[in-house]
Structures are given as C-alpha cells and as structure tokens.
Specification:
Layout lengths: L2 E6 L22 E2 L5 E2 L1 H11 L6 E6 L3 H8 L5 E4 L5 H14 L8 E6 L2 E3 L3 H15 L3 E6 L10 E4 L11 E8 L4 H9 L3 E10 H10 L6 H6 L9 H4 L7 E6 L3 E3 L3 H6 L5 E2 L2 E3 L7 E4 L5 E3 L5 E6 L2 E6 L18 E4 L2 E10 L4 E10 L4 E7 L3 E8 L1 E6 L2 E6 L3 E4 L5 E5 L3 E10 L6 E5 L2 H8 L3
Parallel strand pairs: 1-4, 1-6, 4-5, 8-12, 14-16, 15-17, 16-18
Antiparallel strand pairs: 2-3, 6-11, 7-13, 8-11, 9-10, 9-11, 10-12, 18-19, 20-21, 21-22, 22-29, 23-28, 23-30, 24-27, 24-29, 25-26, 25-28
C-alpha cells in the first residue's frame, strides 16, 4: 500500500500569539470534531487519514522540538521521522525517503505521497490522494500532483498550469503539467483559471526509487542513520526548486471539493464555530469578530467588526482580519515561548528575570496529566523549588521516594536526579534559580516511570 508522509514544520509566526516556535499553527485546538470537542489541525487530518484506510501507512516528518507535542496530541505510537535540525522541504523529504527505504524496508517501486500536515479538507480529499498511485502508473509521469479546482481568482495561492493545448480536466481527471505560477495578480489568475489552471495545494506523489535515484546522484546517503548524522550539511532548499521544477514529466489530478489553507487568522476564523473561545465577551453589535483567549485575564470586545483579538502568555493581537496576513512583518524571535504543550502535560512561564548579582530566576506553572510522568533527570545549572498547588503524585529525588500532594514544597538541588508521576491531574509552581551566564541544560537518565520503577524503586 502507498505510504503517506505528512510534513510538519512552521515557525509559528502566522497565528501569533497562540502559535510560536514550539507550537506551530497545526497544534492549536481551535477546530471542532463531529462530537463538538476541540481538536487541532493535525488531530483532524490524522483522524481523516485513518478513516480513509491509511492507518499503518502514514508517517509524520517533523523536527525534534515538535515530537513531544505530536505524541501528546496523537498518542505515543504515532510513527515519526525526526529531523535532527530545521531544514527546508527537500532535505526533509530525502530523510523520509531514506527512512522508508532503510528502516521500514519499503519496496523502491512503492508510491509515496507527501502532503502538508494541516490542510482543511473534506474526507473525500484523501480518496484523491489514494488515486495518485494509479495516476503515476497510468501516466508514466515522474510526479503526480493534486490541483484544486479554483472557486475564485485568488492572489494568495500558487497555480498548476496545464501543458499548452491540453484539455482542462473534469473532476478526478488528470492533466499534463506545463508549468507553475506563484501568487499571480487577480487579472492574471482569471486568465490562468480560463486556461484550466488549478490551485497548487502542495500534495505530490512519486515512486520511492525516483527519489532514491535523485539522492544517489547527489551523493546523499540512502541510509537513514547516515543521513541523519550528516543532515545539517545538506543545503536548505525546497522540494519544489530541487525536484518539481526539474522533473521531466508531471501529471496532476483535479479535486473539486472543499479545500482551504488555514494559514492566517482571517482564514482560520472562517472555520471556527464559536466567535469566542476562552474567557471574555464579544458584544452583540460586533460583526465577523472573533476572540481567542488562552489567558485567565478576561477580555471584552465592544462594537468592533471584522476584527480578531487573540491573547496568550506570548502576547496580545488586535487586528483587522484582512490585515492579519501582514503579521509576520511585525513578529520577531526575541522572546522565549511562554506556553508549551508536552506529551505529559503543559508548561506556562509566569516570570523570567535576571538580577544584577548575576542570578537568573525562571518561574513556571507546570501541569502533568493524570497517569503521566516526567522522566528521571537533572538540571546542570539550576536548582528548583516546587510548590504543589493541585492534585497528588509520586516523587523520587536521588533515589528517595515520597508521595506529594497539594500544599507540599520540595527542594531539588542543582545536578540532582528527580522524577515525578501524577496520580491525578497534578500542578505545581516551579522556581528555577542559577547563574545567568550559564544556560540551563537537562540530562535525562530514564524517560519513563516504568524505567524509574525498574531501576530506582526496587525494594
């Protein structure tokens, strides 16, 4: 069966302040599933893939900083292909190809489909993805793409342009690709649509050996372990530039269903069922205005239309929806992410200060889900004091075991091994103190509570 590789990356700028370098847009739980529960884009797409019959054939290619978050949202067994460093799409897809070939032992003649991790589509979109195997076989093309039938002359999307003299495809039909056009003017987009051009949704498929041959010609290792070790030496370049634009023959299949890139606050709020999420009020005379508040501070929006207000520990955004596409122009990377989701829970930074005496103090509120645990680890350059404010759990420090609950205070000296498991939802305030000229680093001895029990808690 064909393999699916979902690319999960992103810098977290376009949906700031909810998204950041550690929590990109695909992880924001702002959509609803069929049962009315809050889900993220990656949860929605992964569920659709499983419903389409791709369970066991899908992989997520992602950076090391996103692995905990993905496992926290999709479960510990989700198949991941981990990039050692952030690179562009060509290195990421090369690494995925090496993984499928050398680790999963996938037949080189097998079809591999690559798609973004966050398209907002109908379930039947994945039937079109499944058809790419047949498109490659029947057309003899090097690559097979999916093009969305345009509903209006958009200036935001790239276009797949059919070969001159070719017929425009009907629904599910294929065309020979003559070229591509990136974000044309509205007038140019109208002409492209008249010629049968399709929106490029970033989905393509190839036979695994096609990618392996390109890698071999460039001297790129086909072994996942070797490539991962050399990964940072690869040129950071997109798959479009390195492969798609050089392919001898490309076919595209037309999809005429619903598709949207939820990459801006403007497009995302169009798919949100509630005008307000979190604590606050949107007055009744507001039109097309959305409030998304992740803080405990109430936010009130009165008499504003076509506006998005978003608040998180990372900051506050107030923007006219049409102007929200300019957000990347104003957001820098000079602040640490103030909120992180982890596989075991979450962390919220409350205060981060340095003092004249050379001391750095970081205060965080930490939540650990019931039954989850933090591994057995130590801080190289920070001591910690935990004040438990909610729940109960098990705590071990340098081999000494104790039970903890709300009201307890524990002190963890620098370079002291410690771990914790939540019996029920556990929260504590952590105050880390150490010299500001030394960046804190963590060393982990055991990653799971089971390993801690086996090695540290034997009678």
């Amino acid at each position: 069966m064909m393999k699916l590789v979902l690319l999960s990356g992103g810098s977290g700028k376009r949906l700031w302040p909810l998204s950041n370098d550690l929590r990109s847009k695909q992880f924001l739980k702002v959509l609803e599933d069929g049962e009315g529960s809050r889900v993220s884009m990656v949860q929605r797409v992964w569920g659709q893939i499983e419903e389409a019959g791709f369970a066991g054939s899908g992989y997520i290619a992602t950076g090391a900083t996103q692995t905990e978050l993905i496992r926290g949202q999709l479960g510990p067994d989700v198949p991941l292909i981990v990039e050692p460093a952030r690179r562009d799409t060509f290195p990421a897809i090369a690494l995925a190809a090496a993984y499928l070939f050398s680790v999963e032992k996938v037949d080189p003649g097998e079809t591999v489909a690559v798609l973004p991790v966050d398209p907002y589509v109908e379930d039947r979109f994945f039937q079109t993805v499944a058809s790419l195997d047949g498109v490659l076989r029947d057309s003899g093309a090097d690559l097979a793409l999916i093009g969305v039938k345009p509903t209006y002359p958009s200036e935001k999307y790239g276009y797949i342009v059919p070969e001159a003299g070719g017929d425009a495809p009907g629904a599910g039909g294929t065309l020979r690709v003559g070229g591509f056009r990136e974000k044309p003017s509205e007038a140019a987009a109208q002409e492209l649509i008249a010629s049968g051009a399709l929106w490029n949704c970033g989905v393509f498929a190839f036979k695994l050996d096609y990618m392996l041959n390109i890698m071999a010609a460039k001297g790129i290792p086909l072994s996942y372990d070797r490539l991962a070790a050399d990964y940072e030496s690869l040129e950071s370049i997109s798959f479009d530039y390195e492969v798609v634009e050089r392919a001898q023959s490309i076919a595209a299949v037309s999809y005429d269903g619903y598709w949207k890139d939820l990459g801006t606050w403007n497009t995302l709020t169009e798919e949100m069922k509630d005008a307000r999420m979190g604590r606050g009020i949107v007055s009744g005379d507001c039109t097309n205005t959305h409030l998304v508040n992740e803080t405990d501070i109430p936010v009130t929006v009165i008499g504003l239309s076509n506006v998005v207000v978003a608040a998180s520990p990372d900051g506050i955004l107030v923007a006219e929806k049409g102007a929200s596409t300019r957000l990347k122009e104003f957001i820098g990377h000079d602040q640490r992410p103030m909120y992180e989701e982890r596989r075991w829970g979450w962390v919220r930074v409350l205060d981060d200060r340095s003092y004249d005496d050379g001391t750095a103090v970081l205060t965080k509120r930490v939540g650990i889900d019931s039954g989850a645990s933090i591994g057995y680890r130590l801080h190289q350059h920070r001591e910690e004091v935990w004040t438990v404010v909610k729940g109960s759990g098990e705590f071990i420090c340098n081999g000494t075991y104790m039970k903890i609950r709300a009201g307890n205070v524990v002190h963890i000296p620098m370079k002291t091994l410690h771990g914790v498991r939540a019996a029920d939802d556990l929260e504590f305030i952590s105050v880390q103190t150490g010299p500001k000229h030394l960046e804190n680093s963590i060393m982990e001895l055991y990653g799971s509570w089971e390993e801690i029990e086996q090695n540290c808690l034997r009678a």
